[in-house]
Amino acid sequence: MTGYFEFANPTRLCAGKGAIGNLAYELKMLQVMRPMILSDAVLAKIGTLHMVLDALREVRIGRIFTDIPRDSSIETVNRIAQEYRDYGCDGIVAVGGGSVLDTAKGVRLLISQGDDNLLDLMGCECLTKETHIPFVAIPTTAGTGSEATSVAVIRNPELNIKMEYISQQLMPDVAILDPKMTKTLPPRITASTGMDTLCHAIEAFSCLQKNPLSDAYAAQAIELVRDYLLKAVCHGYSKEARLAMANASFLAGAAFSNSMVGVVHAIGHALGGVCHVAHGDAMTILLPTGMLFNRKVCKKEYAKLLLYLAGPEIYVKTPEEKRADRAIHEVLALRNRLHRLTGLPVTLKEAGVDPASFPEVAKVALNDGAVIVNPRQVTYDAVIRILEVCYGD
Ligand SMILES: [Fe+2]
């Protein structure tokens, strides 16, 4: 950790049972008269989007767009931005998982910059013109933490990569966390997205840009995952568990948005771009092996994490020199339980990845920004080795 750090979390948070009822008021406070609602076809079909539209009975909606695919692309973002202009919208409400929220961020970026192609805006913090576009994020999964981050990941199908956009202008104005938005999330997706949250917190706590504030957010996120992820998986309708996981996702998102992630995310993004492995699944498969790779230089951080991963009793009983290994063991144990409960893949083989793609995955991973802040230097051979171990033969 360097002596200097920055930390920002300007997003106003409305969290709790019935929080969705605040949406119309929040839009009024943002002076939004004709919001564009972004979501996906599944959420429209199962009624989740309807709960949001119910809360907007008194609002004149500009446009509802529900055609966002699982891995949204630059073309989708460009198309929605055009519709935003055509329908005279003046703000965005995004209802969905990471893909919907990141798409909304891309649209906001385009509109605020007066541009019509997201490819023009590649790079970090390179934005000059700025028009504030009000943006409310309503996550329907508890995992990506996109509602609390300055990051958007958008697929570039031509290059077969996932492109990262990073800017403070991507932070939502308001995030609404309501347990009823995630109550129908199937156990398998609850598990996968929950492991993404855990991964954000662990990588934020151990990467080179960590700082005291991101540590505090990450530690609290890990405690919530420890206490509530299995409950949310086994008792999906538990409002307590769903809200706790939504809070964990927000906390971990804010942590890594102000710290960074590391090798697990670098390889995970590459596996997503090259082999189309779902992000949460990739995190589940890679996290323990990534921790083992970093253990050599992260022993102190992982030892501290044992307190949050296993609780004070186990922490105190474990000799200091064994705490880092025990922390990795706790992550493995949680992952294996989720695997038994939901069938979540724990190897790349189970996820259908062809080992012939490893060289391409490694090449893409080494170009990901997250490798720069990983606590241990990441080489091509190291990525190949991690992939081979994770393949699971
Ligand atoms: Fe992630």
Helix content: 40-55%
Radius of gyration: 20 Å
The main β sheet shows up as: 6 strands, parallel
Molecular shape: globular
Q: What class do helices, strands and sheet pairing give? A: alpha/beta
Note the main attributes of this structure.
393 residues; alpha/beta; 15 helices; binds fe (ii) ion
Q: Topology, please?
A:
Layout: E1 12-15, H1 23-29, E2 35-38, H2 41-46, H3 48-54, E3 63-65, H4 74-86, E4 91-96, H5 98-113, E5 135-139, E6 151-156, E7 161-166, E8 174-177, H6 187-206, H7 212-234, H8 239-258, H9 263-275, H10 279-310, H11 312-317, H12 323-342, H13 358-366, H14 370-373, H15 380-391
Parallel strand pairs: 1-8, 2-3, 2-4, 4-5, 5-8
Antiparallel strand pairs: 6-7
Helix pairs in contact: 4-5, 6-7, 6-8, 6-10, 6-12, 7-8, 7-10, 7-12, 9-10, 9-13, 10-12, 10-15, 13-15
The site of fe (ii) ion has 7 residues, from α6 and α10.
Q: What would you note in describing this structure?
A:
The chain is α/β, with parallel strands linked by helices and 393 residues long. It contains 15 helices and 8 strands. Strand 4, helix 5 and strand 5 form a beta-alpha-beta unit. The longest helix is centred in the C-terminal third of the chain and has 32 residues. The two termini are 37 Å apart. The model has no long low-confidence stretch (mean pLDDT 95). The site of fe (ii) ion has 7 residues, from helix 6 and helix 10.
